[in-house]
Design brief:
By secondary structure, this protein is of the alpha/beta class. Helices cover about 45% and strands about 15% of the residues. A 7-stranded parallel β-sheet has the order 3-2-1-4-5-6-7, sandwiched between helices. It is globular. The structure holds NADPH dihydro-nicotinamide-adenine-dinucleotide phosphate. The site of NADPH dihydro-nicotinamide-adenine-dinucleotide phosphate has 31 residues, from helix 1. Belongs to the short-chain dehydrogenases/reductases (SDR) family.
Length: about 250
């Protein structure tokens, strides 16, 4: 049984920027094999090269988490390159926040498809493997908007509340079924990434930009807590971790 991060194989979605990219770099630096998925090939190729040039182990595959077959192919790449999969980090997400009254219906669908269905696709891709090997860890990026309600984050928060429930249920079911699947849900507050670029509502973007400029911190903060959760023995789940910038109320 591998008790620490070294030599674990970790599939990361949303690895082309922000939290996913920072986590890939830290985990690879600490000896993990990282397998990177997102839609932008150029970003994934550049990050993979950076990790490999630093002596780390990495592979990538262009992946749209809305499609189960693509997430399954990403997991299959981990098995082919590194002989198995120990952890999936379901991190891909978008945040086109806006008041519900603005009725940005296409963005509602997009958030449900990426932030919720994308996580379900990650779970579905690893569950047969983790069940068979009676070991594995599923880590998912929720949000503080998955813990409490914020104006403008009606649908975004709904997807983040939903994945929180999903992860807790997986934890309980695994305990009952004896499959030893560890679950970790991460709840970041303001982290400076490309996420605000997905906001199309002008007033929301202005308010969020001001907040992030005032209090936001680096995605390495989340990389460190994910690293901590992975680097624990197989008999414990670090189930929930909330991360606020010190300056954020
Ligand atoms: P970024 O925008 O920097 O990263 C989002 C990542 O998701 C990118 O790698 C993007 O890659 C990927 N992605 C988006 N859509 C898809 C898709 N359909 N298929 C595959 N990958 C996709 O933002 P963050 O790093 O901040 O976001 C990461 C997670 O953190 C998200 O789930 C977000 O909701 C969550 N979060 C972030 C907070 C913050 O303040 N930054 C706060 C709370 C939660 P590509 O475009 O190449 O596909």
């Amino acid at each position: 049984m591998k008790l620490t991060i070294q030599h674990k194989t970790i599939v990361i979605t949303g690895a082309s920027s922000g939290i996913g990219a920072a986590t890939a770099q830290l985990l690879a630096q600490n000896g993990a094999n990282v397998v990177l998925g997102a839609r932008r090939a150029d970003k994934l190729a550049a990050l993979t090269a950076t990790i490999q040039q630093a002596g780390g182990q990495a592979a990538y595959r262009v992946t749209d988490v809305r499609h189960l077959a693509e997430v399954q192919a990403l997991v299959a790449l981990a098995q082919a390159e590194f002989g198995g999969v120990d952890v999936i980090f379901n991190n891909a997400g978008i945040m086109p926040s806006a008041p519900i009254s603005a009725l940005h219906l296409q963005e509602w669908d997009d958030m449900i498809d990426i932030n919720l269905k994308g996580v379900l696709n990650g779970v579905a891709a690893v569950m047969p493997i983790f069940t068979a090997q009676k070991a594995g860890q599923i880590i998912t990026t929720s949000s503080v908007a998955g813990l409490k309600s914020f104006p403008g984050a009606g649908v975004y928060g709904a997807t983040k509340f939903a994945v929180r429930n999903l992860m807790e249920v997986i934890r309980q079911e695994s305990a009952t079924e004896g499959t030893n699947i560890r679950t970790t849900t991460v709840y970041p507050a303001a982290i400076n990434t490309e996420l605000l670029q997905t906001i199309t509502d002008e007033a929301t973007l202005k308010g969020m930009t001001q907040l992030y400029q005032a209090v936001g911190i680096s995605p390495e903060a989340i990389a460190r807590v994910v690293n901590f959760a992975v680097d624990q023995p197989a008999d414990m789940s670090v189930s929930d971790m909330t991360v606020y910038p010190t300056k954020q109320a």
